[in-house]
């Protein structure tokens, strides 16, 4: 199986992963941490020495993602933050990084702390100012997130990549490789929290990096860092991830359809002030999203209800199908009052973030209607 196959085919066949020993159409789970050698101390298999770097299950999951992403190479990590940390640790002391503001708060908080400890100049700019910042500063790394969480800002990846000689890293978690292949638009590395839509079942913690240049020095640094730091995804998690990705295109298609229908309905609702969703023509990033996102606009949207924080909490409390929990991209719909979780980030008190699942859209709309009443 190769890049010429369509995403639905790659995913359904798990990029050709089978179990050659039994003939099973499902790859086996191999939990061993170490691998044998013969009497002459030759390895049974030269690619299997120790599981901190070697794992069939890991390679199988990475193979699916590599093909879906159109990448030259892919590496899995035990979380999205572990993947981000591996990228930023390639920056030298005293270097410079440009970071999009208003993105996932966990990224911002960790990067700020890391750059302070390493005397790295950190330039934080809003999505609309990224292009100017890239043209004005000599940076080693540019990190963007599109669509962003929770503001759903969209960034023109190709424009950013053309404006800088820095390594451009794109967090495309909210899009998944089904909707946006960031490498096709000039990104050097694309990152996902695979915990979210890629896995989609709220039962695996994982992160992933993919590159369009596996022989680049930065990629060698990341690979060495992953091995020596032990930032490896376990075989069971990798096996579950491979299993989940077989339905990734179907899940993303249904979630995107549901999210768009819900966004359109809520935007017209008398109790709603505004809706942030890149699939809405009223969204400031709609034109960019149309260019970069194929087949839908993702499962994530944010809603500004009319009123204050108490009004938003009342709505969240009345929702029945949207589970009150932190995360996004799962088959079940989730909802979160962001101000309660992150009051220090400048988030409006009346903002509600929703991750739309694969349930019946009529049921999801009815749930919001009764909660807004």
What's the helix and strand layout?
Layout: H1 7-12, H2 56-69, E1 73-77, H3 80-88, E2 96-100, H4 105-117, E3 121-125, H5 130-136, E4 141-145, H6 157-162, E5 167-171, H7 176-179, E6 189-193, E7 207-211, H8 217-229, H9 235-245, H10 248-267, E8 272-276, H11 286-292, E9 300-305, H12 309-318, E10 323-324, E11 334-337, H13 338-341, E12 351-355, H14 361-372
Parallel strand pairs: 2-3, 2-4, 4-5, 5-6, 10-11
Antiparallel strand pairs: 1-7, 6-7, 8-9, 9-12, 11-12
Give an overview in words:
The chain is of the alpha/beta class. The protein has two domains: 7-245, Aspartate Aminotransferase, domain 2, CATH 3.40.640.10; 248-372, Aspartate Aminotransferase, domain 1 (Alpha-Beta Complex), CATH 3.90.1150. It has helices at 7-12, 56-69, 80-88, 105-117, 130-136, 157-162, 176-179, 217-229, 235-245, 248-267, 286-292, 309-318, 338-341, 361-372; strands at residues 73-77, 96-100, 121-125, 141-145, 167-171, 189-193, 207-211, 272-276, 300-305, 323-324, 334-337, 351-355. The longest helix is centred in the C-terminal third of the chain and has 20 residues, at 248-267.
